[in-house]
Amino acid sequence: MCYAIPGKIISISKDGKTATIQYFGELRNAHIIGAAVSIGDYVYAQGGIVVGKISETEALPILKLWKTKFLELKKVDEELASIPENISSLLQKAEAGDEEPLTKEEMRDVLNIKDETELNSLYQTANHIRKKRLDNACCVHGIIEFSNYCMQNCLYCGIRCDNKKITRYRMSEEEILQAVDYAVDRLGFKALVLQSGEDSYYTDEMLISIVKKIREKHGILIFMSIGERSKECYIKLYGAGAYGVLIRFETSNSKLYARLRPGKKLDDRLELIRWLKSNGFVVATGFLIGLPGQTKEDIVNDVLLTKSIVPDMYSFGPFIPHQETPLFAAPSSQIAEVLKVIALSRFVDQESKILVTTALETFSHDAKKAGLLAGANSLMINLTPEKYRKHYDLYPGKTGLETENWKPNKEIQETIKLLESLGRAPTDLGV
Predict the structure, then answer these.
(1) pTM
(2) How many domains does the chain have?
(3) Does the pLDDT at position 429 exceed 90?
(4) Residue 251 contacts by C-beta under 8 Å, 6 or more apart in sequence?
């Protein structure tokens, strides 16, 4: 199964930095970074970037397979994404989008909806906007968690440095490269997140070597999720071929941030995120929902702050208390809270890509589906090798740990089946 559909370049901008790609009659744009491509080439695009070429001989059978299927999926999506009847004036205004943006008070009203009928209308409206703005493409990224060592001591995180009960691990360069080979060659992924705690064991040189070796073999979009590394490190990683970064700011409330991340300042985090965005990185960012002390006003500000960064992807997940953290007795967030934030984010930034995080799946087997039907359009599948997977213990209840014989193939098959039932194409078609 391909997690990207190839398209044909029909034009390139005069400066050579942007390609216009045709998919089944639809045109999308993608940036050209470090790729030698020409008009007429068939390429894959991820996160708005051309990540690799594919020969016409290989591309045409894939496109033939997808042409009918793609149109069939669009019909299913159109049926599921129809706007509900008799929606409230608040949702009518939300659907209108930038013509008359929601006020902060109206955004809080969205977060305060509790009636089940109103909630269903809320989610349906958000899903309708998603369809109208972004069609049925759904990014499916893989994540490889290569180290659970972390020098930070965040109160909400299970891999915090003060957790002495966790079994620590670090994957070698060879293990990381083998995991990437498997994800790309055997499973078909075109975008991967390499994630770790803030682990200084991996020097800049080690990370750059890993990225270079991946890019020498694979035309994929690489996201780094390694925390607050130096700008020099990120510049080198970009030069090596890692064009994406996943780095959340966690909360827009600076006092809450300082309390939950001892010794750290929100302004420093935000300055780095904005610098990454301004220097051409594909940035995924966002916040935690349900943190102790967090208010509805904070969440509204979280959404607005995310939008102001102009991210390439929204990434926010539920706070789930871990038994080996100072917040072990705090209440967990609820799935309805997360779904309302997904819908609200779709209202506020209608063309955004919104990720259903793996943490959401701890709530129920249907949480992934619920997130997609509440306005989200991106998914992530954990591809960490089995012997390490259970030790990346950010939060309890992590999916995929219920069996010692877990393999990603089953989760992938279930995900593709889910996407097809919703009329979504498991691919990123560019922007």
Answers:
(1) 0.94
(2) 2
(3) no
(4) 257, 260, 266, 287, 288, 291, 294, 298, 302
